């Protein structure tokens, strides 16, 4: 393969030795020269090819440090009824969705909340039938406790007037037989069918999601989803169809199996590597399950839910770290963050797995005295800027103005912590430029409005910092000699505050491993 010289570009390298350049030379998967076009031409082998980037703005490929890619892929292929306020709107959405499916395909999805629809009767299969465009339909409620199936779907599932009633579920019936509303264990056949379809369809769905990531300038992910996803990535790679790089986290429930199999964090290569094990210290703010040191503003008795306390956390970390596996612990509330840091301090004191780079996922509301401990303990803060934009009003209502470092990426970074950014898609958009906008523009007032970060630092959050978190800072995250040739060409300068804070930059070309993988 000939060398490729990418010229006529405005390159932000994030390489301290040469921060700005206008050309780079790629040989195979790697950058072999950076600088002026003349320098790169002089270094090129005979027969090199030159690509004119038309004055475009180039940054290192972006990495999403926290994404549920299979969850995202499935959500894209399912009917989404979240936020729907009445039955008519649900029916309109069903019809629009069903009409574009291939013949015979199931309509799955839902996540509807019929409590908000103010119906004076239960949902019925006949509410779905006229809008199903000839497809079997099986939708699940937002809390997954019930399913709503059309007449064709019931027939396909083999559910009819002879189907037995179970003690821990309820198959709703009327004079015409099952109504299509399946509660609790009666909905089990729907769940099983959805799982089966997802397992069978995961590879093409992941491939679609990866293409979408490339179109947003994302060249690598730290994927939070579990083993079946890892198998699908491997299958794509074996067929030469894996276009972006994957650092795959381990489900807590798979930890023993991973240890048994001898897997350790950082194993693998530049395309697929083993990540840390994901643990949960608490829940989420909106459901009052984030663990706080003082009660919620609107619930004077309630300090949230501790999923693993500091002793249990320390035990898990010792088990994992003893086998060379780092942890990535979900912690939202200040009490949860304190517990994780305490546990990691204890493990460090014992000297177990000293070279591991443990992470706290979200690190949303941190006690001020804990801010410097991230750097002291070498803990990566894995944060999702768009959560701040989405939750700022909620956080203000539930936390009031108590003194916490909330979404404090700037304070954490200033205290020396590694701050890696991600999306948490499908909970939020997977667009990293929306993340850079959220991190730099920083909505909200008072305590919640502090902590905007400089554009260049936000860019580090999607490049050098994820590379550090995955032990790859010597090959990824910069455009330097010897690094992987992963980069994005944009139509505007993301290091310009006006561009960053408005999110007004669009990817034009995405290159991974020296090859153009996506082009506008
Ligand atoms: Zn997540």
Note down, in words, how this protein is organized.
The protein is α/β, with parallel strands linked by helices and 520 residues long. Strands 1, 2, 3, 4, 5, 22, 23 and 24 form an eight-stranded mixed β-sheet that branches. It has an eight-stranded parallel β-sheet with strand order 6-13-14-15-16-17-19-21. Helices cover 34% and strands 24% of the residues. The protein starts with a strand and ends with a strand. The chain has three domains: 1-61 and 477-520, Roll (Urease, subunit C, domain 1); 69-194, Diaminopimelate Epimerase, Chain A, domain 1, CATH 3.10.310.70; 244-476, Metal-dependent hydrolases (TIM Barrel). The structure holds zinc ion. Zinc ion is lined by residues 66, 68, 224, 424.
> Largest sheet at a glance?
8 strands, mixed
- Tally of discrete structural domains: 3
Helix content: 25-40%
Report the CATH architecture of the largest domain.
Alpha-Beta Barrel
Assign the CATH topology of the largest domain. Answer: TIM Barrel
Q: CATH superfamily membership of the largest domain, which one? A: Metal-dependent hydrolases
Strand residue content = 15-25%
Please identify the structural class as seen in this structure: alpha/beta
List unreliable stretches of 5+ residues: none
CATH class of the largest domain: Alpha Beta
- Determine the N-to-C terminus distance: 24 Å
Approximate shape: globular
Secondary structure tally: strands: 24
Report the radius of gyration as a whole number of Å. 25 Å
What is the mean pLDDT? 93
Bound molecules: zinc ion
Please work out how many helical segments DSSP would assign. 18
């Amino acid at each position: 393969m000939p060398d490729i010289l990418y010229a006529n570009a405005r390159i932000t390298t994030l390489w301290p030795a040469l921060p700005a350049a206008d050309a780079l030379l790629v040989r195979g998967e790697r950058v072999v020269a950076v600088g002026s076009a003349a320098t790169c031409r002089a270094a090129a082998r005979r027969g090199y090819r030159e690509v004119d980037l038309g004055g475009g703005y180039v940054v290192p490929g972006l990495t999403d440090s926290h994404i549920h890619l299979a969850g995202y892929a499935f959500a894209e292929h399912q009917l989404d009824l979240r936020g729907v306020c009445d039955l008519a709107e649900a029916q309109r959405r069903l019809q629009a969705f069903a009409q574009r499916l291939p013949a015979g395909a199931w309509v799955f999805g839902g996540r509807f909340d019929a409590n908000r629809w103010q119906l004076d009767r239960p949902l019925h299969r006949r509410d779905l039938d006229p809008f199903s465009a000839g497809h079997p339909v099986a939708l699940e409620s937002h809390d997954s406790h019930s399913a709503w199936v059309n007449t064709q779907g019931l027939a396909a599932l083999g559910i009819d007037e002879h189907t037995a009633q179970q003690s821990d579920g309820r198959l709703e019936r009327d004079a015409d037989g099952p109504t299509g509303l399946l509660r609790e264990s009666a909905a089990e056949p729907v769940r099983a069918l959805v799982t089966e379809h997802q397992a069978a369809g995961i590879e093409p769905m992941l491939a679609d999601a990866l293409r979408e990531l490339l179109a947003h300038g994302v060249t690598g992910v730290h994927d939070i989803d579990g083993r079946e996803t890892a198998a699908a990535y491997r299958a794509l790679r074996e067929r030469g169809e894996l276009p972006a790089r994957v650092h795959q986290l381990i489900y807590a429930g798979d930890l023993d199996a991973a240890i048994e199999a001898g897997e350790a964090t950082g194993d693998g290569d530049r395309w697929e590597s083993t990540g840390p094990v994901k643990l949960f210290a608490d829940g989420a703010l909106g459901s009052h399950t984030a663990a706080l040191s003082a009660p919620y503003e609107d619930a004077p008795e309630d300090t949230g839910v501790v999923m693993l306390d500091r002793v249990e956390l320390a035990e898990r970390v010792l088990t994992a770290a003893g086998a060379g596996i780092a942890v990535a612990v979900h912690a939202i509330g200040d009490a949860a963050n304190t517990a994780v840091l305490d546990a990691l301090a204890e493990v460090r004191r014992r000297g177990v797995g000293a070279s591991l780079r443990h992470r706290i996922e979200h690190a949303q509301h941190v006690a001020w005295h804990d801010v410097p401990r991230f750097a002291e303990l070498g803990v990566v803060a894995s944060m999702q800027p768009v959560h701040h934009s989405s939750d700022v009003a909620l956080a203000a209502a539930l936390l009031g103005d108590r003194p916490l470092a909330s979404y404090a990426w700037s304070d954490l970074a200033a205290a020396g912590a590694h701050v890696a950014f991600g999306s948490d898609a499908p909970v939020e958009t997977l667009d990293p430029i929306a993340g850079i906008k959220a991190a730099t523009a920083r909505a909200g007032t008072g305590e919640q409005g502090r902590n905007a970060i400089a554009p260049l630092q936000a860019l580090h959050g999607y490049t050098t910092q994820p590379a550090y978190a995955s032990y790859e800072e010597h090959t990824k995250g910069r455009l330097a000699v010897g690094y992987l040739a992963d980069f994005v060409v944009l139509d505007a300068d993301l290091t310009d505050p006006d561009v960053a804070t408005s999110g007004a930059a669009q990817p034009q070309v995405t290159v991974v491993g020296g090859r153009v993988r996506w082009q506008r």
